[in-house]
């Protein structure tokens, strides 16, 4: 199982690099270079990583130790894949934490007007990025949109602060009849159709780029620090009412009822 898991990780990484290489615009963290290193130091580093990863993720028994020894002995076939990319020091998670501190807001407490404006500008950039992803030929479904995967520059680059990162779960959507794996991504941001079956078995079903729109619906709540479950009991001005309606449409349980990113942009830019 460990050997098969390692092969799958390599396959997934190659797929990620192929998708990443198609995304050469400022909206994305740029893939700069990749290389393999197979020296003794790299081998020791990988063995240590594998050992720690297996201890954290599952029971590490004698079978895994034996595999580790076999892996270590395969020096001639071993190498670490290194990937060079843009340096971004902050994620959207960091930025949202700093915004709450600056405006003295608790989680799920509405932001003041300046905070609303900042969140709106960030949302526009995010929507434009995902719209670009979905308009590719074939469209690309990211499948793991969340604050940790949206990196933020301290200074704008060509007018943009936000860059989308981590394409490890991304897939090309080549036809409407194409099926994709279930239960991939981060559960809180996962669309209902991706959760079908409620297990992490390697099952597949048909779904579309609208699963990313659902993730954006959850992300909007993070951006604007709103309490989706309690918003009807709050006194909201018109701008926050529009945001809640936007969120509701993106979070529709029926994928065909969700708006596209282009439609969401049209609404928020009004």
TrEMBL record:
<dbReference type="GO" id="GO:0005737">
    <property type="term" value="C:cytoplasm"/>
</dbReference>
<keyword id="KW-0547">Nucleotide-binding</keyword>
<dbReference type="GO" id="GO:0005524">
    <property type="term" value="F:ATP binding"/>
</dbReference>
<dbReference type="GO" id="GO:0004672">
    <property type="term" value="F:protein kinase activity"/>
</dbReference>
<keyword id="KW-0808">Transferase</keyword>
<dbReference type="InterPro" id="IPR050339">
    <property type="entry name" value="CC_SR_Kinase"/>
</dbReference>
<dbReference type="Pfam" id="PF00069">
    <property type="entry name" value="Pkinase"/>
</dbReference>
<dbReference type="InterPro" id="IPR011009">
    <property type="entry name" value="Kinase-like_dom_sf"/>
</dbReference>
<keyword id="KW-0067">ATP-binding</keyword>
<comment type="similarity">
    <text>Belongs to the protein kinase superfamily. Ser/Thr protein kinase family. GCN2 subfamily.</text>
</comment>
<dbReference type="InterPro" id="IPR008271">
    <property type="entry name" value="Ser/Thr_kinase_AS"/>
</dbReference>
<dbReference type="GO" id="GO:0005634">
    <property type="term" value="C:nucleus"/>
</dbReference>
<dbReference type="InterPro" id="IPR000719">
    <property type="entry name" value="Prot_kinase_dom"/>
</dbReference>
<keyword id="KW-0418">Kinase</keyword>
<protein>
    <recommendedName>
        <fullName>Protein kinase domain-containing protein</fullName>
    </recommendedName>
</protein>
<feature type="domain" description="Protein kinase">
    <location>
        <begin position="1"/>
        <end position="270"/>
    </location>
</feature>
């Amino acid at each position: 199982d460990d050997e098969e898991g390692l092969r799958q990780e390599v396959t997934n990484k190659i797929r990620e690099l192929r998708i990443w290489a198609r995304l050469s615009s400022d909206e994305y963290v740029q893939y700069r270079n990749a290389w393999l290193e197979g020296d003794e130091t790299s081998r020791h580093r990988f063995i240590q990583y594998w050992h720690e990863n297996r201890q954290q993720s599952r029971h590490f028994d004698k079978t895994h130790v034996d595999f580790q020894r076999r892996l270590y002995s395969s020096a001639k076939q071993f190498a670490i894949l290194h990937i060079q990319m843009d340096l971004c020091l902050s994620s959207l998670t960091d930025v949202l934490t700093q915004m709450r501190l600056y405006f003295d807001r608790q989680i799920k407490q509405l932001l003041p007007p300046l905070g609303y404006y900042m969140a709106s500008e960030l949302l526009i950039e995010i929507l434009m990025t995902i719209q670009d992803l979905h308009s590719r030929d074939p469209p690309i479904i990211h499948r793991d949109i969340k604050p940790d995967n949206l990196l933020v520059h301290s200074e704008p680059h060509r007018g943009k602060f936000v860059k989308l990162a981590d394409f490890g779960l991304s897939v090309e959507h080549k036809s409407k009849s194409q099926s994709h794996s279930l239960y991939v991504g981060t559960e809180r941001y996962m669309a209902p159709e991706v959760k079908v079956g409620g297990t992490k078995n390697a099952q597949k079903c048909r779904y579309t780029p609208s699963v990313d729109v659902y993730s954006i619906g959850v992300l909007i709540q993070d951006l604007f620090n709103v309490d989706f479950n309690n918003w009807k009991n709050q006194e909201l001005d018109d701008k926050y009412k529009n945001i809640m309606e936007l969120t509701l449409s993106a979070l529709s349980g029926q994928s065909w009822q969700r708006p596209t990113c282009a439609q969401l942009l049209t609404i928020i830019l009004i």
